[in-house]
């Protein structure tokens, strides 16, 4: 089953006199359980592509299907629910709420989705074990290292058991040791939780954690291992 199905996707910024075609007729699929690395030089369109797949922006042309649903035809309320429940986002700079504890940050999606926190108590305990921060559950973000903060953001991304994680340069702000720990965590989540992952990365080492690499250049896919 395809978790992501991108068909003839193009994105143009600017107007007639100053057009910048960031993505040019991009097509590919990501199957359930894959861990795909999206690589390319700065300006190749990879982050734009990630945001389009996450429903954070609209394409100029083409279609994006998440779990066989065309997200470009969704009304905003349904799209917002998709982003909360089916897609977990992990960004380079963590985006944690600074006055909330580790466990409060992790539980934010549960609260935003209008669900009862008590129903996720066991899930929270499991995730704290997975990320190795059971002893930091009451800590604030400024009391954590960068690697620990990123692990909290990953925990927040998976609390509602999404089918897909979109990660934009998830170790771009970390030292090599912390970066390896985060990538090992992603690999474990992919295998043990069965969550499909699409990561944007500049790092060849990080890309090798994936099961497949998509290479973008000047808004086009240039490698041949795309379905």
CATH architecture: 3-Layer(aba) Sandwich
CATH fold name: Rossmann fold
CATH superfamily caption: P-loop containing nucleotide triphosphate hydrolases
Task: Tell me the distance between the termini.
Answer: 13 Å
Total number of strands: 10
Give helix and strand order, one letter per element, not per position: EEEHEEHEHHHEHEHEE
**What is the number of helical segments per DSSP (H or I, 4+ residues)?**
7
Q: Label the overall shape.
A: globular
How helical, in percent, are the residues? Answer: 25-40%
Key terms:
globular, about 230 residues, alpha/beta, Rossmann fold, about 35% helix, single chain, four-stranded antiparallel beta sheet
Helix and strand arrangement:
Layout: E1 2-13, E2 20-31, E3 35-39, H1 46-53, E4 61-66, E5 69-70, H2 76-85, E6 87-90, H3 102-112, H4 121-131, H5 146-158, E7 164-168, H6 176-193, E8 196-200, H7 204-207, E9 212-217, E10 220-221
Parallel strand pairs: 3-8, 3-9, 6-7, 7-8
Antiparallel strand pairs: 1-2, 1-4, 4-5, 9-10
Helix pairs in contact: 3-5, 4-5, 5-6
């Amino acid at each position: 089953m395809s978790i992501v199905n991108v068909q003839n996707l193009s994105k143009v910024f600017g107007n007639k006199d100053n057009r910048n075609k960031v993505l040019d007729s991009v097509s590919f699929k990501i199957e359930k359980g894959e861990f795909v690395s999206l690589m390319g030089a700065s300006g190749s369109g990879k982050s734009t592509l990630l945001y389009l797949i996450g429903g954070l922006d609209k394409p100029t042309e083409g279609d994006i299907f998440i779990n066989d649903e065309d997200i470009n035809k969704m009304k905003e309320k349904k799209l917002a629910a998709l982003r909360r429940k089916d897609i977990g986002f992990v960004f380079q700079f963590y985006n944690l709420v600074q006055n909330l504890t580790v466990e409060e940050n992790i539980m934010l999606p549960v609260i935003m989705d209008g669900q009862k926190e008590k129903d996720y108590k066991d899930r929270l305990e499991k995730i704290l074990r997975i990320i190795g921060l059971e002893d930091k559950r009451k800590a604030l973000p400024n009391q954590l290292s960068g690697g620990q903060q990123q692990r909290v953001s990953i925990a927040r991304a998976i609390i509602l058991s999404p089918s897909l994680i979109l990660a934009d340069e998830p170790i771009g702000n970390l030292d090599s040791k912390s970066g390896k720990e985060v990538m090992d965590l992603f690999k474990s989540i992919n295998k043990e939780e069965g969550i499909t992952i699409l990561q944007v990365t500049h790092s060849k080492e990080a890309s090798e954690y994936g099961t497949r690499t998509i290479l973008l250049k000047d808004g086009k896919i240039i490698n041949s291992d795309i379905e």
